[in-house]
Write a structure and sequence with these properties.
With about 200 residues, this protein is an alpha/beta fold. Helices cover about 45% and strands about 15% of the residues. The chain has a five-stranded mixed beta sheet, sandwiched between helices. A hairpin with a 5-residue loop joins strand 2 and strand 3. The longest helix has 17 residues.
């Protein structure tokens, strides 16, 4: 039981069976380990408390054509979250090709704060890109950010108004992040900035 708790809660981040099996199989083996793991996940109180039901049927997806890693970043903000250590929002960026994600807690939604977090945590750590996909938020439409992108030679792609599906790669990642945060955060929700690197 302690081994399955360690795998499911820590290594796999409370994700379901398909994400837990790669962590179990190289570390241990017993005759009924798959059945035991499925039963353990079904009985996990944190997962059952967060269960949202079966998602509705959706139309077929249109693939996003990207030719290589770090060519296009999808960027979005989440929040406002409960204020903790001065942070209220989280900037998320995900590479549309490799699905590598970056999460950064930020103090506000001002254009200068968002631009600085993008430069410091995306461009300087992962390299320059050719395109950025964002929604129509004020922080993404500001002159400071547009001037920054113009100087770097980056093309700005905008999603349609009230159509979050355009930036679906970021929205689906937010769903996964929220699910993992909900299962490990304290009841007062004041420790979320400390948990961002671990999630």
């Amino acid at each position: 039981m302690a081994f399955l708790e360690l795998i499911h809660a820590d290594a796999a981040g409370h994700l379901k069976f398909a994400k837990c099996t790669p962590h179990v199989s190289p570390r241990a083996w017993w005759l009924s380990w798959k059945r035991d793991l499925k039963l353990f996940i079904k009985c996990c109180p944190k997962c059952e408390a967060f269960h949202r039901g079966v998602p509705p049927r959706q139309a077929k997806l249109h693939p996003m054509l990207v030719s290589g890693p770090v060519e296009r970043w999808a960027i979005d903000l989440t929040g406002p979250h409960p204020a903790a250590h001065g942070y209220k929002y989280m900037m998320t960026a995900i590479c549309c090709f490799s699905k590598f994600g970056v999460c950064v807690p930020i103090r506000n939604k001002e254009a200068s704060t968002v631009a600085k977090s993008i430069v410091d945590h995306v461009f300087l750590q992962c390299g320059m890109c050719h395109e950025i996909l964002t929604d129509l938020g004020k922080e993404f439409e500001a002159e400071l950010r547009n001037e920054l992108l113009r100087q770097f030679g980056i093309t700005r792609l905008r999603s349609s108004g009230y159509r979050p599906q355009t930036n679906g790669v970021c929205e689906v990642w937010h769903l996964t992040l929220n699910s993992m945060f909900a299962k490990i955060i304290w009841e007062n929700q004041r420790d979320w900035p400390d948990l961002v690197p671990y999630v």
